[in-house]
Amino acid sequence: MMLTMLLLLLVNLCVVPLLLVGVIRKVKARMQTRIGAPVLQPFYDVAKLLRKGETISETASWVFVQAPRINLAVALLVAVLVPWYGLTLPPGWAAASNLLLILYLLALGKFVSLLAAMDTGSAFGGLGASREATISLLVEPAVVMGLGALAVATRSLNLSEVFTQPIHPLVALLVGVALVITALAELSRMPVDDPTTHLELTMVHEAMILENSGRNLALVEYAVALRSCILLGLAAQALLHAWPALHAFPPPAQYGIGLAALGVTGIAVAVAEGVLVKLKWRRVPHFLAIAIVMSVMAALLAVAQR
Amino acid sequence: MTTLQPCAPALSHITVTPADLATQVTALLLQPGWRFGHLTARSLDARHTAIDVLLLDTQRGAVTCLTAPLADGQAEYPSLTAQLPAAHWAERAVGDLFGLRAVGHPRWKSMLLHNDRWPVDLFPLAGAAQATTPREPYRFLQVSGSGIHEIPVGPIHAGIIEPGHFRFSCVGEIITNLEIRLGYQHRGIEGRLTEVPWRQARYLAESASSDTAAGNALAHALAVEHLLGIAPPPRAAALRILALELERLANHIGDIGALSGDIGYSPGASLFPPLRGATLALAQTLTGNRRQRWFVQPGGVARDLDDARRRALLQGVQDLARRVTDHLPLVLEHAGVLERMDGVGRLSPTLARDFSIVGPAGRASGTGYDARVFSPAGAPPAAATRRIEGDVLARAQMRAEEIASSVAILTQTLDTLPDSPIQVALPATLPPDAVGVGVVEAWRGELLHWVTTNADGAIARYAIKDPSFNNWTGLAIAIRGNLVTDFPLCNKSFNLSYSGNDL
Fold this sequence. Notes:
The complex is a heterodimer.
Chain A: H1 2-14, H2 16-31, H3 41-51, H4 62-81, H5 91-95, H6 99-119, H7 123-154, H8 159-162, H9 169-186, H10 205-208, H11 214-240, H12 251-275, H13 284-305
Helix pairs in contact in A: 2-11, 2-12, 3-11, 4-6, 4-11, 6-7, 7-9, 7-13, 9-11, 9-13, 11-12
Chain B: E1 11-15, H1 18-29, E2 34-43, E3 49-57, E4 62-69, E5 76-78, H2 88-98, E6 101-103, E7 148-153, E8 165-171, E9 174-181, H3 189-193, H4 201-205, H5 213-228, H6 234-262, H7 266-287, E10 296-297, E11 300-301, H8 307-332, H9 335-341, H10 349-354, H11 359-364, H12 392-415, E12 435-442, E13 445-453, E14 459-465, H13 467-478, H14 487-494, H15 499-502
Parallel strand pairs in B: 1-4, 5-6
Antiparallel strand pairs in B: 2-3, 3-4, 7-8, 8-9, 10-11, 12-13, 13-14
Helix pairs in contact in B: 5-6, 6-7, 6-12, 6-14, 7-8, 8-12, 12-14
């Protein structure tokens, strides 16, 4: 049993993140009547980048070189700690999946990547970092309040306990949708940022990593895929908890359901990207306000339910 | 079908002194319907130069040329820019090409020639013994104040586009000033056009800006015909309209798709490029190639349209019109698109008039000027097609309206194609000391080819004024006070030519 769990964890860390990116791209391509790159293309890309040389700006310091490594390490750590539907962690690890620890580990990763973006001396890096910081500022209350609502509902700050206990479906639903919205912003996807644009002046995340190349870029891409998986995974799990009946399934089937839910969330993101228009920059706070309001409502509901 | 005849604009010529030039020009421009066309210089002989100003009377479809010869050894003339802001780039271009300084120009600096690339005393079009003033080092406008930062973009950009440098001075995300520096594509087309044999010059003239090949070829043909005093046969005139309107159609359709792409709206970005491709295929049916090169020529056109192809073209235009009408609401009636474009990059009607902004961009800012008044051939669809909002949305809607009017013009012209030869014979030589002007409403707006011959009947000066030459300033003004993230969208809504500007 333990071995199966470890194997599944390994799959979660190494296969699912880039596969999710590939699936999202494929769905988007199909929606635009294109055939699109193979679903496995993100794996090929990372493999290619790992073999390539790096160009590092003369003005960049060690921060630029080390940031993607720190960022990836943090993302891997969080991916291990975050509970996964149908995946039981060893008791010692599960104790560490503290809600606040996870939140601020994610923030640490973001902080490091902001530093790296400002380190290169390129005008775009600073521009992207400033925009990303603005978005993070708006995302944080929504995430803290949303996960906080779950914590209040289950009287536990430990996420692996939170997701094993029954939650009021409405709380789960509100938090789930709020998390999807914040994930879109946090991961620089439409309608907050267009991940496929070539226009530097409009970029958020891509402007930050314009200077990265080769192995450095591979680590960044992989870390971003992991973060997508973590955030969309959290959202998917919160949504799944709106149906308590699913708890009746045995763990392997639950894992499958969790994976399917993640896939569906990914496809939903892709479909949304296919029809949405990128928001005016001044409208982004309005969009994120939706998530904040939903989280607050969930929190109030959770308090009322106690 | 007499209306299909492009009329040669009536030409009047006035000689003034450089000191009087500004007064004279401003006085003439007070007449209703008159507008500033272009300003340039011309070598009279090895020592002497003159400043030439072209004014257009849009009500009568006439042109007036003012010539101000400079005294021997004089390399300066009083600037017109203070009274006529639209002349500001033209005077700077004259400074680079002829080494003549416009005294009193508020932002005097080089424009086309960059000091790190070209010798500071190189003036490609100046006479051999003419007095010149050396080019000064380029200085960007410095915006000072707390929190101002600069973002340099280009000259090499992401994506496959032409080179140009944009210097943004910003407070946070807000652009306080944008300075556009071009000239990276300067390749001496105007100079070369005076050297090549005039009968072959059309191949070079139409490459001034290749996305406007039909427009440039037409302006060249009109200018040469004006010079020679001939008119093309009615059938050729009609075929030229087809070429011009197909070019407009293809580019406007492409722009709607590109605008969608810039706001991340993928349905628009994926539906319109195939329609543009279909339009280019129609252009190939007409001219034999998708970019419509080598088709329009002085005296007529190079290739006739037989009845089978005419019917195919008519069918193609109608199919295309149906698909475009089908797809346009997906973009221009989508709430998200409207919200995104509304109020972004607003260019006020006053500034649009002062800087002589042309084409759809000008009409989106209330100018109401369509250079097709100079050629009843492509009669402007309706005087009513103008807006005053002047934002990205208005420029997009202007394009949508012009797509519809181009389809109407194409259908009507194809339905009533006159029967005649497609070419008249050209005289062997050009008349001496003559001026020919070709005015065309290309898809970006008013395009001028302005040819002057010397006493030997050779082309002494061939000036081209691309619509982008007016409109780059419009872009720089429109983006002020907007957010940095809105620049690419605003830029795309103008969609200007670098090569047509740099020549």
